[in-house]
Write a structure and sequence with these properties.
transmembrane, flat, transmembrane helix, membrane, 3 helices
Length: about 120
């Protein structure tokens, strides 16, 4: 087994140059790209909008979505209530067995209806 040679200082620098360049670019590009965003408003545009106080911000960012939620919920539930349907989040409906016996008598007796196939291998 041959020992690995220790890298020279210039080899270490070359190996670290690429990650350092990528990291520097990743940090500098957003900072340099944000420069135009901090520019002053042109003179012909007039006064900027007044700042929004905290109450207005809460009403806009919380009140409007809650209002939309309430309106959508009302649009879903009100027609059903007007028709007289029960609104129950946990209905106690009877279970359905699709393709099963047509009556409880067939289920209890274990007798298969005529003309059935399947696992019994009778066609």
């Amino acid at each position: 087994m041959t020992p690995h040679p220790t890298p020279s200082p210039s080899g270490r620098r070359a190996r670290l140059a690429r990650p350092a360049a990528v990291l520097t670019g990743a940090l500098l590009v957003p900072v340099l790209a944000a420069g135009p965003a901090s520019a002053a408003v042109p003179e012909g545009w007039g006064d900027p909008l007044p700042p929004i106080d905290d109450l207005e911000a809460i009403l806009i960012f919380i009140g409007i979505p809650v209002l939309l939620f309430v309106l959508i919920a009302a649009a879903v539930y009100v027609p059903a209530v007007v028709r007289g349907e029960r609104i129950n989040p946990n209905p106690q409906a009877d279970s359905e067995w699709f393709g099963g016996p047509r009556s409880d008598h067939e289920l209890e007796s274990g007798a298969a209806p005529e003309g059935t196939g399947g696992a019994s291998a009778r066609w």
